[in-house]
């Protein structure tokens, strides 16, 4: 790293000088938090058979439980990002950890579908602050030479958290019932937050990028003129807000008078019963948009994002790739439990371990490798990170298909090999989800960028895909539903190819010129 970059990265927001290795200590601390971020989510999926049996739910309704987190996490993510860009990210990270851990413990009190659904949704709301804050924080400690590696290393905790969360939640479910996993994971999360409060420190925003800008030997562009951002049309936004209030009312009515899942199971009935509730959550987002419409920075974010084609294409690709991942997380443990173990409760933890360990361990290799490759290619070409992502999704397509197609006849070796292959290339893609978009988005907008991407990917693909897969599984089986998910990778690959070939170089150069001009003016 350049001397300029080191000097900026090693000073926190209060002016205290930090150890040269502190930027990697930050990655280690966030690694531990991300572990619980994902372990908490897997407590539901690992114990899905027990929960469905207790509450009398078919696969479609089980899929709806799997999407409760995704809807609230996604719909609140952009507003979490909006807040993260205006507060200390350390506080957002650690307070968020405390909140979602308390809610995780509270989930154990649920004894009906809708109460459980509500707790899972609230947990998603608590976790929504974490990734926008954490990724923004990492990007200010790590510049273009190490950013993908730092985020790739952090990404490995997603995989360990998924493995550990699935296995230990399943084991606790076998011995003590499904509620015990939520209590254990929540309590440990609170302890971790208290321990890390002393050691995690806030960096200056944009420090790494400004250092990179000063270090480059390119000519400085003239300082861009600030342009006023026109507010969103008042009549339009008022109409949207009124619609949102109506949708909220519909959601509340459905919550007060829920339809019994066992009364008329099936995809059509599930959509009718669940639709008003989902629209109500969406209505809350619209009302929040009405409140924030006068904030010029909030409006400016959308103007910047949607006039940056690379960011839009990466957003759509994330939607598709996350849909595939959501199907895996929600349904692969159940697929193995039913297909290979005949629904014997004694094998619940083992099924969860097999569903996650080959894929997630391979992802642990793929993620750092993807980060290292992306950093090296990024030095040579601005297309580097996106090209690495493209390789990840295209090579993952056949492995996704085979993971669903494997059965007792083909045996465990084919299944485990397919899951490992899927995991390897999934990790290569995952390590650059935010690093790629940060190459074209300004530092002060990165919290909202991560939040908006999570909104689109989780409230969209991550929430809808498990329901659709559950509905398909009712007629065709879980294996078929998982294999069909490979179509998501095909579309993601096409979007990434367009971004790499036509837009990322131009968008990255434009952002870098703006930062260098501002650094020169300062």
Structure summary:
With 522 residues, the chain is mainly alpha-helical. It is 79% helix and 0% strand.
**Sequence stretches where pLDDT stays below 50 over 5 or more residues:** 1-9, 217-248, 250-257, 259-267
CATH architecture: Up-down Bundle
State the name of the first-level CATH class: Mainly Alpha
Mean pLDDT: 77
Structural class: mainly alpha
Query: Span between N and C termini?
Result: 23 Å
The total tally of domains equals 1
- Main β sheet profile: none
The amount of helix comes to: over 70%
The percent range for strand residues is under 5%
**CATH superfamily (homologous) name:** MFS general substrate transporter like domains
Structural write-up:
The protein is 79% helix and 0% strand. It has 522 residues and is mainly alpha-helical. It has one domain (3-231, 294-521): Growth Hormone, Chain: A (Up-down Bundle). The two termini are 23 Å apart.
């Amino acid at each position: 790293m350049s001397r300029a970059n080191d000097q900026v990265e090693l000073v926190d927001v209060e002016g205290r000088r930090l150890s040269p290795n502190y930027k990697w200590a930050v990655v280690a601390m966030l690694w531990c938090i991300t572990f619980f971020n994902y372990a908490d989510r897997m407590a539901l999926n690992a114990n899905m058979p027990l929960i469905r049996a207790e509450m009398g739910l078919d696969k479609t309704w089980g899929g709806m439980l799997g999407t409760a987190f995704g809807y609230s996490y996604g719909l609140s993510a952009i507003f979490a990002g909006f807040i993260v860009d205006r507060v200390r990210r350390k506080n957002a990270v650690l307070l968020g950890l405390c909140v979602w851990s308390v809610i995780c413990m509270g989930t154990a009190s649920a004894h009906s579908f809708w109460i459980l659904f509500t707790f899972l949704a609230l947990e998603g709301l608590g976790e929504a602050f974490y990734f926008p804050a954490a990724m923004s924080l990492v990007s200010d400690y790590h510049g273009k030479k190490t950013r993908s590696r730092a985020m790739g290393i952090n990404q490995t905790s997603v995989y360990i958290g998924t493995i550990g969360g699935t296995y230990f939640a399943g084991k606790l479910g076998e011995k003590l019932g499904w509620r015990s996993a939520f209590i254990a994971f929540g309590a440990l999360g609170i302890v971790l937050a208290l321990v890390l409060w002393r050691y995690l420190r806030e960096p200056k925003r944009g420090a790494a990028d400004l250092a990179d800008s000063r270090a480059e030997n390119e000519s400085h562009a003239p300082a861009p003129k600030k342009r006023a951002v026109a507010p969103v049309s008042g009549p339009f936004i008022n109409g949207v807000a009124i619609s949102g209030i109506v949708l909220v009312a519909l959601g509340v009515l459905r919550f007060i008078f829920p339809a019994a899942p066992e009364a008329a199971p099936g995809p059509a009935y599930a959509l009718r019963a669940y639709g008003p509730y989902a629209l109500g959550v969406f209505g809350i987002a619209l009302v929040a948009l009405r409140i924030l419409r006068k904030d010029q920075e909030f409006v400016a974010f959308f103007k910047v994002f949607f006039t940056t084609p690379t960011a839009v294409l990466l957003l759509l690709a994330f939607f598709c790739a996350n849909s595939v991942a959501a199907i895996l997380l929600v349904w692969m443990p159940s697929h193995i439990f039913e297909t290979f173990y005949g629904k014997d409760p004694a094998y619940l933890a083992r099924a969860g371990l097999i569903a996650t360990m080959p894929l997630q361990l391979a992802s642990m290799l793929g993620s750092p490798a993807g980060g290292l490759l992306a950093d090296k290619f990024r030095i040579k070409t601005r297309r580097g990170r996106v090209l690495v992502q493209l390789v990840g999704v295209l090579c993952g397509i056949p492995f996704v298909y085979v993971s669903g197609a494997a059965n007792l006849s083909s045996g465990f070796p084919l299944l485990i090999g397919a899951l490992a292959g899927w995991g390897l290339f999934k990790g290569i893609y995952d390590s650059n989800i935010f690093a790629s978009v940060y190459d074209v988005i300004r530092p002060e907008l990165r919290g909202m960028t991560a939040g908006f991407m999570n909104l689109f990917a989780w409230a969209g693909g991550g929430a809808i895909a498990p329901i659709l897969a559950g509905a398909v599984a009712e007629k065709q089986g879980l294996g078929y539903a998982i294999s069909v998910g490979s179509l998501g990778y095909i579309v993601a690959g096409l979007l990434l190819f367009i971004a790499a070939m036509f837009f990322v170089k131009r968008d990255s150069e434009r952002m870098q010129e703006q930062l260098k001009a501002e650094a020169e003016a300062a």
